């Protein structure tokens, strides 16, 4: 089932699948989940490596107010590994997430990691003195060319500030946070999110997805929106503007891009089932035309807010969900919300000019909507 609606702030204009969205149509519809962002849009004109212009930022997802004290069940899945998501070996070995998740640009991974550690030590001074030490989850997409990535604009103190400000409820999408410098199918990319709420007979669970879409600058033809080959229809329109040959020299990983996908649910799932949930992200991405290029880093993580363990190694939360009909519904909701989150990113992102005068156009809903109406 597909529903078209007029786009509004921070909501995808396309609803996919049989399940309704939550009130935010975002990952924060899962109770307890918080999102924070910092955005840097500074300077214009030619790229001066290390000095700007900057089009970058960071986005944080917290499973609860204090993930160090209350760890949540989690699992990661790698569709294509030409990218980085730190800390996932621990998650897959232990089966729990114990830090915030931070998304940022490639060269700011280390600085973001420092910021998470600073934030956690500030809240828990015993870290590194007695007890455990955190292994933060930091994932990246490459915004070089559009952003002065050498400048490493995201600092540890920015990440601390972002984590302090993370909150439930609605949050901006598109050209914000980690999505500020991203491109997708030759359009402006960025942060998108969506949610789906299962019927009471299926547990009444919520699935929320947040994506950082950076899926390519020269792959326009691949874009599919709600089954319609929109990329083919706009193959020669609204193309990226490169003022000179030097600005156009984006190749390999910088041109092919990446995508990071975070899935949250309040369904009480064990790590094995959460890995299966993370795998279903691929189905939603396939619907929008993604083929996972060789140079792409496509990395996913799923967590359950209701299967927990405390620092005292006391397990808590609801009994693990094992009903196959409910788990299949969670799989379907994950694929649907992933697809919708990508659309959310594409339609929320606006036209932006970055370093060296490179301009990426936002995907215009007013051009796409008539195509979808004719097709459906």
Classify the oligomer: single chain
| Percent of residues in helices | 10-25%
Nearest-integer average pLDDT: 92
**Distance between the amino and carboxyl termini:** 11 Å
Low-confidence stretches: 1-10
How much of the polypeptide forms β-strand, as a percent range?
25-35%
Quickly list its features:
single chain, 376 residues, alpha+beta, L-amino peptidase D-ALA esterase/amidase, seven-stranded mixed beta sheet, four-stranded mixed beta sheet, 9 helices
Describe the 3D structure.
With 376 residues, the chain is an alpha+beta fold. The protein has a domain at 2-32 and 68-98 and 176-375: L-amino peptidase D-ALA esterase/amidase (4-Layer Sandwich), CATH 3.60.70.12. The chain has nine helices and 17 strands. The strands form five sheets. Strands 5, 6, 11, 12, 13, 14 and 15 form a seven-stranded mixed sheet that branches. A four-stranded mixed sheet has the order 3-4-7-8, covered by helices on one side. It has a two-stranded antiparallel sheet with strand order 1-2. A hairpin with a 2-residue loop joins strand 9 and strand 10. The radius of gyration is 20 Å and the shape is globular. Mean pLDDT is 92; it is low at 1-10.
